[in-house]
Amino acid sequence: MESLEINTGSKKYPVMIGEHAVSLLGDYLGQLSFTKLLIITDKNVEKICLPILLGNLRSYHPCVFTAPAGEQAKSIDTYYEAMTSALENGLDRKSIIIALGGGAIGDLAGFVAATYMRGIRFIQVPTTILAHDSSVGGKTGINHRLAKNMIGAFHQPEAVFYDLSFLKSLPSEEVRSGFAEVVKHGLIGDPSFYRWLKSNIQDLGNISIGQYETMLAMGIGVKASIVAKDVMETGIRAFLNFGHTLGHAIEAEMGYGKVTHGEAVMIGMLFALEASKSEAGLEFDLESFRAWVEKLGFSASIPYGIEPVGLLKRMKQDKKAVGGTVKFVFLEEIGKPSLRDIDDSRLESLLNNFLLSKK
């Protein structure tokens, strides 16, 4: 069992990572003073993971709200329904919400907790690899039809219980989606971690519990070190969006749920790495990296039919854009990201080059 502590300056909270970590949750709750528990989960997780969680929390008699699976969980309509459930179940300011699911559920449940009665406590119980990125750091939110994650709040959890036994049920596309964010943490924060990943992970269908513990703890450690220095994303926390400017644009252009978040981000990282070579002087074996991720099952190119003009429009709507100018995360070297303005004409040229290089 791996144990980490997240320090945001104003708040510290534990992250427990290991097989059957959820068995520790009951004792943790016993140390807190609270009135009611509301578990927020989705239709897929409800079938597999919810019975295990309820078995560990039987004495607390939690109520449950079940959202649609996938990005639909982060719609305004689902948010409203979750708030209605909290009201109907009589939650008050001393109640606690538990987010049981992947990143979408963590974002939804965290935003419900952040806004219900102007803020109540919540606990993250991630069930996907992708959620190792979203379950710590306190960014919560929902989608608008025009852009992803544009409605949200910073609201830190009380604790994170990362039960690796839940990962056994993940389909291959969800494993890929989560692993992309693991790679991101290595690229932006820890060259030795990146080298460990590239040397040790050659088959996403054959990752051991020990390897999961190692890579998730190291990935969370990279994020925690950045968040501790910039909780509200006014500076270096934007480095965590490496690959996301294009990745989010691909998701939006295709329609949320048509491509997984991590698979879109991996394409975004390939683009960012290529752009970093020309714009930031990055020395990096891109072909070796591309061969590795393609071997792991990732696509290395923008999906067919998406045009640069649409992607550029989406990228200018990104949260990091200021006055319509895109702020883009480059890598100067592995472990050394930088945030720079990039004008429309240069960005469009880079996008066209990236598209042409994959034809």
From TrEMBL:
NAD(+) binds at G103, A104, I105, G106, D107, T127, T128, K139, K148. It catalyses: 7-phospho-2-dehydro-3-deoxy-D-arabino-heptonate = 3-dehydroquinate + phosphate. GO terms for molecular function: 3-dehydroquinate synthase activity; metal ion binding; nucleotide binding. This is 3-dehydroquinate synthase. The gene is aroB. Residues 178-321 form the 3-dehydroquinate synthase C-terminal domain. One of its GO terms (biological process) is chorismate biosynthetic process. Its EC number is 4.2.3.4. Its main location: cytoplasm. It is found in: Cytoplasm. It comes from the Bacteria. Zn(2+) binds at E181, H244, H261. GO terms for cellular component: cytoplasm.
